[in-house]
Amino acid sequence: MAVSISVVLLLLVLAVVFMRSGGLKFAHALVCVLLGFLLASTSVAPTISHGLSATTQLVGDVRP
Q1: I want to staple 18 with a disulfide (CB 3.0 to 4.6 A). Which of 7, 10, 23, 54 is the partner?
Q2: b/e map of 7-45 (b: 16 or more CB within 10 Å)?
């Protein structure tokens, strides 16, 4: 749960930065949000969730 909230906040901050810099238009951000909601309701959602969990575990295990 904490990882997904962190990822959502990170993506929100990135979207705001891109929108303010002009690299991301409001319509593009809206399409991305709608795509996320639609993906969350499909059968692909568990696969995406497991992939993100595995990636965060891999990054968390990396020692500098």
Answers
A1: 23
A2: eeeeeeeebeeeeeeeebeeeeeeeeeeeeeeeeeeeee
